[in-house]
């Protein structure tokens, strides 16, 4: 359930190579590519001038072989298919543990066991979405639920063998964190990692200031990231993720709108007036999970959730009855707003 909602505001990177001879700026390197069905954009400042493209690509490939739901030979696919020789690795174990923590904290609004439902709705495929009947939902409900999976003695234990996990609502944020760990281990002080819109920043940008992230206006038809911005936020030493449904939706064969955010309680596409949720957290994975949860529970419950978590910062855009948009921000994010 990926979101293509955040666009990096990296004008300084475009300028540093031609506007300054400062050695700090000249050390910045940019690496772009494709991964996990989306794109990635990484900028880093290595005082040693190392070319880390190979290391970056190897980490992304290793992650794909571990937690990709689209890779038919990945560890996750093998576990979903009940391969008795498959064992959860460290990444799988950490993602499942973090997912369960967010699930419990949000009273089940975040749930990584919805893979069978996502497949039934045909979300993320080229096929026309199928809006499930209540009978179909009830038949699938018996093998969903985050409480029904655990790791015991190094094995994944499912309450029902038909259960299947999907970490897409946290995987790209987690991958950004893994990339950050690699940079930290290499002594790289300044970097920005963006994978499918999930962002992690450390240190300074090439202009010597904080990184800037543009949040797209959540209106249908705004399909080009950065073309119509809702706001610009400064960011460093934190993760940022925006989740929403204004781009990732389709219509079924009867013309019904099917969004990519599924409510684990009703097992239907979430329906409320929250258009997008931008969450800033200590890690990108945490931001990813809570942004998804906000898009499940809606505006008022998201406000309550954020009030319980002072370590989180939130920028919520919602629709009003007259068709205009309102914005709710937590007090701790207001200092980041550039415009």
From TrEMBL:
Its EC number is 2.7.1.180. It holds the Pfam family ApbE. GO terms for cellular component: plasma membrane. The keyword Hydrolase does not apply. Mg(2+) binds at residues 169, 288, 292. It catalyses: L-threonyl-[protein] + FAD = FMN-L-threonyl-[protein] + AMP + H(+). Its cofactor is Mg(2+); Mn(2+). Magnesium. Can also use manganese. It is found in: Cell inner membrane. GO terms for molecular function: metal ion binding; transferase activity. Keywords: Cell inner membrane, Cell membrane, FAD, Flavoprotein, Lipoprotein, Magnesium, Membrane, Metal-binding, Transferase. Gene3D superfamilies: ApbE-like domains (3.10.520.10). It is a lipid-anchor. Its main location: membrane. Flavin transferase that catalyzes the transfer of the FMN moiety of FAD and its covalent binding to the hydroxyl group of a threonine residue in a target flavoprotein. This is FAD:protein FMN transferase.
């Amino acid at each position: 359930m990926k979101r293509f909602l955040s666009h990096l505001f990296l004008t300084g990177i475009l300028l540093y190579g031609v506007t300054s001879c400062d050695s700090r700026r000249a050390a910045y390197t940019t690496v772009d590519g494709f991964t996990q069905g989306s794109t990635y954009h990484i900028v880093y400042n290595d005082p040693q001038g190392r070319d880390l493209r190979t290391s970056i690509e190897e980490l992304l490939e290793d992650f794909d072989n571990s937690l990709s739901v689209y890779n038919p030979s990945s560890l996750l696919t093998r576990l979903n298919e009940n391969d008795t020789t498959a064992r959860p690795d460290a990444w799988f174990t950490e993602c499942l543990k973090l997912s369960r923590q967010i699930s419990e904290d949000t009273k089940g609004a975040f749930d990584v066991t919805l893979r069978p439902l996502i497949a039934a709705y045909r979300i993320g495929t080229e096929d026309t979405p199928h809006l499930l009947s209540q009978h179909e939902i009830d038949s699938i409900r018996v093998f969903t639920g985050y409480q029904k999976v655990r790791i015991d003695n190094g094995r994944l234990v499912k309450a029902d063998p038909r259960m299947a996990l999907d970490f897409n609502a946290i995987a790209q944020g987690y991958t950004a964190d893994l990339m950050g760990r690699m940079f930290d281990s290499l002594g790289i002080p300044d970097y920005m990692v963006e994978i499918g819109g999930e962002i992690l920043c450390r240190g300074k940008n090439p202009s010597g200031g904080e990184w800037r992230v543009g949040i797209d206006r959540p209106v249908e038809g705004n399909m080009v990231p950065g073309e119509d911005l809702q706001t610009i936020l400064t960011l460093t030493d934190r993760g940022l993720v925006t989740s929403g449904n204004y781009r990732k939706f389709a219509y079924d064969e009867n013309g019904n709108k099917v969004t990519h955010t599924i409510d684990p309680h009703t097992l239907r596409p979430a329906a409320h007036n929250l258009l997008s949720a931008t969450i800033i957290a200590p890690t990108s994975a945490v931001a990813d999970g809570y942004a998804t949860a906000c898009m499940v529970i809606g505006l008022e419950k998201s406000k309550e959730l954020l009030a319980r978590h002072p370590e989180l910062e939130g920028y919520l855009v919602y629709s009003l009855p007259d068709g205009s948009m309102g914005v709710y921000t937590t007090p701790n994010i207001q200092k980041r707003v550039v415009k």
